[in-house]
Amino acid sequence: MLATLLQSSLVRLIPVGMVVIALQRTIFTDLLVAGVILQIVLAFVAAAGATGGSERGAVAGFVLGVMFDLVEGTPVGSTAIAFTLGGVIAGLLALIAADPPWWLKALFVGLGAAVGEATLPVVRLFIGETDPWPADMITVVAVVGVGAAVMSPVLVPVSRWCLKIRGPEWTAPAEADPI
Amino acid sequence: MAIYTVGRGRVILGLILTLFLLVTLDLRGNPVLDVAREGFSRAMAPVERASDVATNPIDRAWNAYQRQDDLERENAALQDQLDRQRGTQAAAEASIIDYQLLLALNNLDALANIDTVVAQVVGGASNNIDQIVEINVGTNDSVAIGMAVVNQGGLIGRITDVNQTTAKVMLVTDPRYSVPVEILGGTGAAATDDVTVSTSPSGRTDEENDALVEASQTPAPGSPGDLFADDPELPQATDPFGPGVLDPTAPVDEQVPESTLLPPAVPAGGGDLAATTTTTIPIPELLEKEFGVLRGNGASRPPQIRFVQDIPSLAILQVGDLVETSGGSSSLAPPNIPIGRVINRADRPGVAGPLLEIELIADLEKLNFVQVVLFQPLSEVGG
Fold first, then answer.
1. Is B11 touching A (CB cutoff 8 A)?
2. Within an 8 Å CB–CB cutoff, is residue B25 touching chain A?
3. B250 touches chain A (CB under 8 A)
4. Residues in CB range of B184: below 8 A, 6 or more apart
5. Is B132 left (phi over 0), alpha (psi -120 to 50) or beta?
6. pLDDT of residue B330
């Protein structure tokens, strides 16, 4: 079981996740765009989903979401639910294209991040918080989504490395023997 | 490329159900999760420090690009404000000292009797919902959950999470924040009156006033501007029980005359007393209090006060009225901490009472040094 764990993507995902969370809690709290904090952790989860599919996106959302809750002090699992959904939505790209171009990946990363950010107040409402909605919810969701799409060219290769996913290799079909 | 299958759907469903289970366990309080949270926070600390150092140049460049124009405008406005405040600062300090002495004289809760811990803000919230900052003091410094946090402007929030060396502060603007407050009816009119004096009542030179302002920008115990100073000293406060100022044997309601007459100041280095003037600050005839509950309303919206009784025969609540904590046996904040001023009043039909919007005195976007008030109400300490 230990060997399985060591060979899984968690070995890379957890330390990379710690770095991404550290970046979120340091520089990204100051890098405000239209007064909105960009969510690099959520973008990374969405990138993992767009790269590896809904299941891997859900696993990445689960792991990074729990880590984020542990360090932020929010109820463990609350942010993770939103992150998991974001990873699942971004992973729906696999239903559309086997080898999507970069712009399609960026689109789904942005979509997954937007869904995750929109789900966060819903989860907070579910666990009993009153009025968890930001004043400008539409702006927040839009900026987070666009920001994630912009960061996707960097996050998609990193997530592919973390999840140990090889890019598709196109091979020429074997030529038929004329005789 | 992975495709969606029934098996994978079960994995996703299982993960989500597990997360709901974790949320339920954590909301009910689970020691395993608490230990995990503490341990992971410690593991993340060096990573965050390294990230902070590595990204500092980018942060500075971004702030320089974003805020250059705002900084120039703010600098000009602050210089103007500083010039105006030089003349009134000393007079206000004397009034605060006299007030605290009155409270102590009558064994009432006084801010000067409460210990504080100075802290620095080291981090902020990482999402767009919570209004939380992190400070660099914890249980090692006697900080506990529920304690009020203030800065030079006034109340900024309360402690919601604490470990050995750090703590999280929920700001007043967080929608989950609430605190009992009192509204000093009638102070709105007094605030607009011109109390600027034509001479410096303290007798200090401009250079001495500049040094005083600089000292007030970093909190120091005993500094004149420190509400929680044990024995702040000012030239005109050396004899608070002198003739014509306070009579310790008289009842409280007779000790505060209609106008507060400050004793004449002694010029720096001695000199002719006739060269200075006394300053009279009129106190409104009606200074009644209304009570309510202040609740945060999000980062971009002003906090609101609800459950105000609004009895016009006692006081007419108006724009500009001062708001401060009311204290009480169950309030987590001690009384008389300034919070802000009323900027808007909305009358609601029926018996709902008016809704007041507040402009905070403290600037929550520029927090640096703060003070944790080491105060716990009797209901918390079990006394």
1. yes
2. yes
3. no
4. B287, B289, B321, B322, B323, B324
5. beta
6. 74
Judged by a CB distance cut-off of 8 A, whether residue A138 touches chain B is: no
CA of B165 vs chain A CAs: smallest distance (Å): 14
> Is A159's Cβ below 8 Å from some Cβ in B?
no
What's the gap between Cα A39 and its chain centre? 10
Among A44, A67, A74, A166, pick the best mutation site for testing chain B contact (most B Cβ within 10 A): A74
Q: Which residue has the higher pLDDT, A70 or B7?
A: A70
Place of tokens 């150092």: B53
Q: Which of B16, B48, B176 sits opposite A25 (nearest CB)?
A: B48
Classify the C-alpha dihedral A158-A159-A163-A167 as positive or negative: negative
- The per-residue pLDDT for range A20-32, each reduced to its tens digit, is 999 999 999 888 8
- Nearest alpha-carbon partner for B343 in B122, B229, B183, B210: B183
Q: Is B8 on the interface with A (CB under 8 A)?
A: yes
Neighbour tally for B62: CB within 10 Å = 15
* Chain centroid, CA B39 distance in Å: 32
H helix intervals, chain A: 2-7, 10-25, 40-52, 54-72, 78-91, 102-126, 137-162
Are B267 and B117 in contact by the 8 Å Cβ rule? The answer is: no
> Residue B9's pLDDT is what?
87
Q: Is the pLDDT of residue A151 over 70?
A: yes
Question: Distance of CA A71 to CAs A4, B17, B42, B87, Å?
Answer: 27, 22, 9, 47
* Chain B nearest C-alpha distance from A49 (Å): 10
ipTM reported for the complex, 2 dp: 0.82
pLDDT on residue B299: 85
- Whether the predicted pLDDT of A137 surpasses 70: yes
The answer to whether residue B145 neighbours chain A at the CB level (below 8 Å) is no
Give the torsion sign (CA, A31, A37, A38, A43): positive
- Between these two residues, B117 and B64, which has the higher pLDDT value? B117
Mean pLDDT of A85-97: 93
Task: State the distance between the two ends of chain A, measured CA to CA, in whole angstroms.
Answer: 53
Residues 114-133 of B with CB under 8 A from A: 123-130, 132
Report yes or no: B12 at the A interface, CB cutoff 8 Å.
yes
pLDDT at B88: 62
Provide the mean pLDDT of chain B: 74
Beta-carbon contacts of B111 under 8 Å, excluding residues fewer than 6 positions away, are B100, B227, B228, B334, B336, B337
In this complex, the residue of A31, A91, A129 whose CB is nearest that of residue B176 is A129
The nearest CA of chain A is from the CA of B325 a distance in Å of 23
Interval B179-201: pLDDT, tens? 999 988 776 654 444 444 334 44
Domain boundaries, chain A: 36-162
Q: Is the pLDDT of residue B273 over 60?
A: no
